[in-house]
Design goal:
Layout lengths: L8 H15 L2 H17 L16 E4 L3 E4 H4 L5 E5 L6 H13 L1 H6 L3 E6 L3 H11 L5 E3 L4 H6 L2 E2 L13 H5 L6 E2 L2 E6 L3 E7 L9 H8 L7
Parallel strand pairs: 3-4, 4-5
Antiparallel strand pairs: 1-2, 1-5, 3-8, 6-7, 8-9
Length: 222
């Protein structure tokens, strides 16, 4: 059996899953696992944005500073965009503070900007930045525009005919069920995709050192 190093992102997700197995009803647990597996099985690396693709000049909405153009973001060099689901997502509340501790300092030393991106409306999205005191910008991707262009957005399969209270579109404020799959995008000057790593299983996101190694050219993501 492989050893999970304490306090890695993998270890934190293992603890989250163990708690869910103790506390969630079997049907809910099975539904969560089923959706994650469906996304893994369905994922096609050739269907998402590829190295060299040029992203349109879209505008994100920084929860504190307002409009943030992709051109401004990459005007002085590459930027790393971390796509996540929404401010209340348990897995995202594990990933972002972990990246703040482990990834952000390494990127800062390399002069690479880090921005966390979600489709959630800015007034609701700001909560995750404030809660964790994140040292990097958190920005809204209006209507999943950038996520959709990258080919990383999805709509859950198990959707009730009548949306319940607290459903995804209500939480994000966007209306539809659409969400981004967790992803890491290195975007260079001119809005050129340098690489894109997608995590169809939202409980299997890359460790900071894997991302840094890819940036430094010591590893590649499939």
């Amino acid at each position: 059996m492989a050893t999970i190093v304490a306090d890695t992102l993998k270890a934190r997700y293992a603890a989250l899953q163990a708690e869910r197995e103790r506390s969630w009803p079997p049907a809910q647990l099975a539904g969560n696992a089923r959706q994650r597996q469906v996304l893994v099985d369905r994922f096609d690396a050739a269907a998402v944005a590829q190295r060299g693709d040029i992203v349109p000049p879209l505008v994100l909405l920084d929860v504190e500073e307002g409009p943030l153009t992709l051109d401004a973001l990459t005007s002085e060099g590459a930027a790393l965009l971390i796509f996540f689901r929404f401010a209340g997502c348990p897995a995202c509340n594990i990933a972002l503070p972990h990246y703040a501790e482990t990834l952000y300092p390494a990127l800062r030393d390399r002069g690479i900007k880090l921005v966390a991106v979600s489709p959630q409306q800015p007034d609701r999205l700001k909560d995750i930045k404030v809660r964790h005191g994140l040292p990097f910008p958190v920005a809204s991707d209006p209507d999943n525009g950038l996520a959709r262009l990258l080919g990383i957005s999805f709509v859950p399969d198990d959707r009730p005919e009548q949306p319940p209270v607290g459903w995804i579109g209500e939480v994000t404020g966007t209306g539809p069920w659409e969400l981004p799959q967790p992803a890491v995008l290195l975007l260079g000057p001119g809005r050129v995709v340098q690489w894109l790593q997608v995590s169809p299983d939202w409980l299997a996101r890359p460790e900071a050192e894997e991302i840094v190694a890819a940036i430094d050219g010591e590893a590649t993501f499939g």
